């Protein structure tokens, strides 16, 4: 990381300036009522976001047809994936059926959107603890690599299409919050969320030769003992009630590489984040400084859709749509 090029690293007074520079707009809140039948839970959200979801899935359909011009890939998605739905645990099966019916989109395409995370995501998560034992948690959701580069405005196409679909969600039961999350409309699993007063959770894909692609292939070929990670994470947020913490380090940084291995030399977001955390020091860690660190290039990059900040103790959950102004790395 070139700290001379990006002197904004870990300065709390820069948050307002960053919001002006890179702020795309507010992320709306929606309530997901878990007391409703699964088929009906997403009705309000999907009614609002159906046009944007159709645009994004139409783009994916066109991209798939470029890779497989015969159209057979989308034929398999539309015709074969629904037949595999019985292997997806409830209530997610009924929720996806409800979304498909509301949007008029093929159920297979809704299913494919819900396994997207296994393929095309790159993220950064930071958990830090101040001197008083207070934990703060932040993440950049980076998504859409290899899915089309727009040479006119130097952006990843899917990254931009996902921004109008970004939402904050308040999952409630008996009119009380069970957990809160930041997600994409149409995606029923969860990758970023917290239970107020208990714990926060973010998920980053692990780059591995036997990871997402192989797991999806094995699932299609009949190995059904695995669980889709977004569904598993949502189950944790919905049902878990405690978290044991070991306080031997004051921060943890996770990107997409095993911590005991060196990251890919063109994608060293981890070192940049660690440099900023060390410059900040434990005495000055807070949500604004976490935001600042997540705004430092290349932690902030062309694939960044949104930044989420979480303070479990104070019940704070904030999500910001992001832009990465040039010069900015492509991933």
Automatic annotation (TrEMBL):
Known pathway: Sphingolipid metabolism; Lipid metabolism; sphingolipid metabolism
Listed GO CC annotations: extracellular region; lysosome; membrane
Catalytic activities: an N-acylsphing-4-enine + H2O = sphing-4-enine + a fatty acid
Domain Acid ceramidase N-terminal: from-to ranges: 25-87
Occurrences of domain Choloylglycine hydrolase/NAAA C-terminal (ranges): 123-243, 273-320
Repeat as UniProt keyword: no
One GO BP: sphingolipid metabolic process
Keyword annotations from UniProtKB, A to Z: Disulfide bond, Glycoprotein, Hydrolase, Lipid metabolism, Lysosome, Secreted, Signal, Sphingolipid metabolism
E.C. number(s) listed in UniProt: 3.5.1.23
One Pfam family this sequence matches: CBAH
Record flagged with keyword Magnesium: no
InterPro entries: Acid_ceramidase-like, Acid_ceramidase_N, CBAH/NAAA_C
Highest taxon of source: Eukaryota
Transmembrane stretches, start-end: none
Family affiliation: Belongs to the acid ceramidase family.
Protein name per the record: Acid ceramidase
